[in-house]
Write a structure and sequence with these properties.
By secondary structure, this protein is mainly α. The protein has helices spanning 2-29, 38-50, 52-62, 69-72, 84-102, 107-110, 113-130, 135-159, 166-191, 210-229, 235-254, 258-275, 280-296, 298-306, 316-321, 330-348, 359-362, 390-421, 425-444, 454-482; strands at residues 67-68, 81-82. Helix 9 (166-191) packs across helix 11 (235-254), helix 10 (210-229) packs parallel to helix 12 and helix 18 (390-421) packs antiparallel against helix 19.
Length: 483
């Protein structure tokens, strides 16, 4: 044993001295400082191999603080979020190697209906990447989606498999998010808190714009509300949660994201439905009645909307009223322009679409002069389809939309069933707020799409993993009860 100790110490010193000389050689003869990062890279690799959960926590913590590569190195050939996406890619490689070596993973997670829906969606993304008009762009999109799903859903579901670590996962995002809130609010103060235009850029470089920032705040609002009111948490946690709730709510208002505000209102309505235990049948019938009325009176409704003169404004009530202005509000009109382009692209390629991630490169020829706005660009370089539903429709055809809708439906169905079935009060509350958080994004997805970023993928796939884990736990409890 003593001899083994000497060998380990000798190896340690040999590696240390070797690294020092290697570092000096690179610095002096090659003028390269990058080698200084080797110990950090080595530490991360070893952590990923022996304790993958720590890397997941690192990704979650750095997601709100990550910065796109183009902010650091403008004009680079490709873009990614640093440091989260390199961590995710590295962890994906380690995860695949470990699965190949052990040939095992939790089958309850792998064969869960939500997982099956994810496989179907990924499979169709693969098919449409092969048929893509820009294969390199599409395969990069597919790779990014794969590491988001593999790490933030499958490994996170494993992390939550015993009902643990869920609150930690949430807090590890909320704490740095509060740092971003301080940063954005401080910058906003310089322009005046009620300056709506400033809300668009004060969150840069951490968030692209106020809409992704608002979507994130809406996702986490149900969780901080739970932590604030649930007496099962300690007094210190609830006090911290009060501060977090007030900051998230303030930031949500100052984000001037109308889509985020609307999503929170609808999530509140879903909570009331679950609280009052209203059955699905009357809700579905009500939905069909409302839909029939909209179709029957669509001409009158559009005339009313066209007569709305309200513009996006610093005045909150005016800003809310402008949501239905489809005549003069540039933001609303540009969305309609992007949606119209997506539908025309779908009509041209209804089966396979143009390929995942290609909308922003292909939509320019589909803009009609009558649809263009003061913020439209002739080059069509203004971004994505502004819809989590029409984007896949244009990029991956009808199956691209249907597989995403299937995933959404299966997650909601699983969450509602788990909520009604699970006995543990803590898990019951967590599955509820995870569902409400996701509802905000499903609604937001009609007006924007952000699942190609780490900022929204961390909560989206993480909350989905919580729902799946709690569903599996509730099924185990039912099985024990039957025995």
């Amino acid at each position: 044993m003593e001899q083994n100790g000497y060998i380990r110490i000798s190896v340690f010193y040999l590696i240390t001295v070797g690294f020092i000389f290697l570092n000096l050689w690179f610095m002096v003869s090659k003028n390269m400082m990058m080698v200084n990062a080797l110990p950090i890279v080595l530490a991360i690799v070893l952590t990923a191999v022996f304790s993958f959960d720590k890397i997941i926590y690192l990704v979650v913590f750095f997601a709100p603080l990550s910065i796109p590569l183009h902010e650091i190195m403008p004009g680079f050939g490709f873009d990614m979020y640093l440091p989260t996406e390199p961590l995710l890619f590295g962890l994906l490689i380690v995860f695949l190697l470990k699965v190949l070596q052990t040939r095992s993973f939790d089958k309850k997670i792998l064969l869960h209906p939500v997982s099956l829906a994810i496989y179907l969606n990924l499979f169709w993304l693969l098919i449409t990447s092969i048929t893509s008009s820009m294969p390199i762009v599409s395969f990069k999109f597919l790779l990014a989606r794969t590491w988001f799903v593999a790490i933030l859903f499958f490994l996170s579901a494993k992390l939550f498999s015993e009902g643990k670590n869920m609150e930690r996962y949430v807090w590890l995002y909320i704490i740095p998010l509060i740092v971003v809130i301080f940063y954005a609010t401080y910058r906003h103060l310089g322009y005046g808190l009620w300056d709506k235009q400033a809300a668009h850029f004060v969150v840069s470089p951490f968030y692209n714009d106020h809409t992704s920032y608002g979507a994130t705040l809406a996702l986490y609002l149900p969780f901080v509300t739970l932590f604030m009111f649930d007496k099962s948490y300690s007094r210190n946690v609830r006090l911290l949660s009060v501060a977090a709730f007030l900051m998230v709510l303030m930031a949500l208002v100052l984000s001037y994201s109308r889509a985020a505000w609307l999503s929170v209102v609808i999530a509140f309505g879903v909570w009331l439905i679950l609280l009052l235990k209203i059955r699905f049948k009357p809700i579905f019938i009500s939905f069909l009645v409302v839909l029939a009325l909209i179709l029957a009176f669509q001409q009158q409704i559009f005339m009313k909307l066209e007569n709305n003169p309200k513009q996006s404004s610093a005045n909150l009530m005016t800003h809310i009223s402008s949501m239905s202005n489809i005549t003069t509000d540039a933001s609303n009109l540009e969305r309609i322009n992007r949606w119209s382009c997506a539908i025309r692209m779908f009509e041209d390629r209804p089966v396979f679409g143009y390929g995942p991630g290609t909308y922003m490169f292909q939509y320019a020829p589909y803009q009609l002069n009558k649809d263009r706005t003061i913020i439209s660009t002739n080059a069509g370089d203004g971004g994505n389809a502004h819809s989590e539903y029409l984007g896949p429709l244009s990029e991956s055809g009808v199956m691209g939309l249907l597989t995403f809708l299937l995933l959404t439906g299966v997650v909601i169905y699983t969450a509602v069933n788990a909520y009604t079935r699970v006995k543990d009060p803590r898990l019951k509350k967590i599955v509820l707020v995870a569902l409400l958080g996701l509802i905000t994004y499903y609604i937001h997805g009609f007006l924007n799409n952000f699942l190609d970023t780490d900022k929204l993928s961390v909560p989206f796939w993480g909350f989905t993993a919580m729902i799946v884990s709690i569903d599996i736990i509730s099924r185990k409890q039912d099985a024990r009860t039957e025995r």
